[in-house]
Amino acid sequence: MAAEVRVAAATEAEETAVEATAVAATAAGVMAEVAMAVVETVEVAMVAVAMAVVMAAVAMVVVVTEVAARVAAARAGARAAAARVAADLEVVARVVAGWAVEGSVAAVRGEEG
């Protein structure tokens, strides 16, 4: 069960990283198209303003990508913690089952706990 949770956590982290990369690539493509349109249609004085906007957009893409990576890491950490808790609960269940077997054997023998 713990292995399944670990595999699911790794898969989730990988999918999130792929999605973040796709978002960053799409945003970069859009920014490149916007920059080309601005360069072709705006006066020289406005090109400087447009470049400042593009640089701000690039900074936002970097921030969004970093946040997505941190979210993926947090998800992976939470899933790993859940896997550890599940493993601990499995051990507890085995101990309790052992106690139940011991109690059943004692009851069959007529012993008192």
Layout of SSEs?
Layout: H1 2-41, H2 44-109
Helix pairs in contact: 1-2
Number of strands: 0
The proportion of strand residues reads: under 5%
Low-pLDDT ranges: none
Number of helices: 2
How would you classify the helix and strand content by structural class?
Answer: mainly alpha
Sheet with most strands = none
Number of domains: 1
Shape: rod-shaped
Helical content band = over 70%
pLDDT averaged over residues? 76
Helix/strand order, N-terminal first:
HH
Radius of gyration: 28 Å
Q: What gap, in angstroms, lies between the N and C termini?
A: 33 Å
Transmembrane segments: 44-69
Keywords: Membrane, Transmembrane, Transmembrane helix
Can you walk through the features of this model?
By secondary structure, this protein is an all-alpha fold. It has one domain. The protein is built from two helices and no strands. The protein has helices at 2-41, 44-109. Helix 1 packs antiparallel against helix 2. The radius of gyration is 28 Å and the shape is rod-shaped. The mean pLDDT is 76. The chain crosses the membrane at residues 44-69. Keywords: Membrane, Transmembrane, Transmembrane helix.
Characteristic terms for this protein:
113 residues; 0% strand; mainly alpha; 94% helix; single chain
Can you summarize this structure?
The chain crosses the membrane at residues 44-69. This protein is mostly helical and 113 residues long.
